[in-house]
Design a protein that fits this description.
kinase, Rossmann fold, 13 helices, 2 domains, ATP-binding, 13% strand, two-stranded antiparallel sheet, nucleotide-binding, 7-stranded mixed β-sheet
Length: 305
């Protein structure tokens, strides 16, 4: 099984080389080779070590996680899908963009009031990447020491159970019908502070279930136990479920996919959210050109192609 790497306070003052030597991942003589090569080529320690073939990217992530007390998953038997990239490669370019997105969300929504805990991730049509973005965002908040709950509110085509490899026999749909009283929230191994509430069995009437007062109670109880709640939603073309979920959350992050999302549909979605009293905190463009990393746009400027 994959293991979590989480540093102790003393690791913050140690160099990457010292951490790798003490963990047995690097020999002292190899550290000297890397330092000499680093000086010759004006490289960072990790880059120099990888160019010499003495270090791997996984070694660098391991050392950085200990330096910054930043949990991530490594090793065989991955308990989380490789698609949740920030769980395995938090210091990659993708991880950096996701952390930037998290910071903007903290400034625009989560830090504005004690009651602002939940955020719905919404989009216009299936395949835009809502579920994957919600999963990665939830991991980044947990890595920042926020008690985080990821709710799979897509009772039509749920995906969080497969991304986090948890059973889906019980979940949100059971709670909504009042048929479950025991704990149905699953903790994610190796990511302290992260929990997932899967969708549960797919019901024939998701819109009616989500419209019940029971979801408001579930969310209220969750808010007392978690710092951040991310809600994955179905596409708005699938039904009114997304509107209900976003209204309960109070805020929405709009997802658009490059060369898939239609501008007119995206604008209609933003207007619909605002008409429903939902604060649109921004938008994210998925599959943007590499030189244009995904980022939040100001409210009212959401767009996609």
């Amino acid at each position: 099984m994959a293991t979590m790497s989480s540093g102790k306070a003393r690791e913050a003052d140690r160099s990457i080389g010292a951490i790798l030597v003490s963990s047995g991942r690097l020999a002292i003589e190899d550290v000297e080779r890397i330092i000499n090569f680093q000086k010759e080529r004006d490289l960072r320690f990790g880059d120099a070590g990888m160019q010499l073939g003495l270090l791997t990217e996984a070694d660098i992530f391991y050392a950085l996680s200990l330096q910054f007390d930043y949990p991530y998953l490594s090793g065989p038997g991955h308990p989380v899908s490789d698609e949740v990239v920030v769980a395995y490669r938090p210091f990659s370019a993708e991880g950096e963009r996701l952390r930037s997105l998290r910071s903007q969300l903290q400034l625009r929504w989560f830090r504005e009031g004690a009651s602002r805990v939940a955020l719905a991730v919404v989009g216009t049509r299936p395949g835009e990447g809502r579920s994957l973005l919600a999963a990665n965002l939830a991991v980044t908040f947990a890595q920042a020491k926020e008690r985080t709950l990821l709710i799979d509110g897509d009772l039509r085509n749920p995906r969080q159970n497969s991304l986090f490899r948890v059973e889906n026999q019980t979940g949100l749909s059971n709670l909504l019908t009042g048929r479950m009283h025991e704990q149905v929230i699953k903790l994610v191994p190796g990511i302290p502070g992260l929990a997932v509430l899967p969708s549960g069995p797919i019901p024939p009437n998701p819109e009616e279930l989500l419209g019940r007062a029971s979801f408001a109670r579930i969310l209220e109880q969750s808010m007392s136990a978690f710092d951040v709640i991310i809600i994955d939603t179905p596409a708005i073309t699938c039904g009114a479920d997304v509107t209900l979920l976003a209204r309960f959350a109070g805020a929405a992050l709009v997802v658009a996919r490059n060369n898939m999302t239609r501008t007119a549909e995206l604008r209609d979605l933003v207007a619909h959210m605002q008409d429903a009293g939902v604060k649109v905190v921004g938008s994210v463009l998925v599959d943007a050109p590499f030189t244009k990393p995904a980022k939040l746009k100001k409210q009212g400027e959401a767009g996609g192609r």
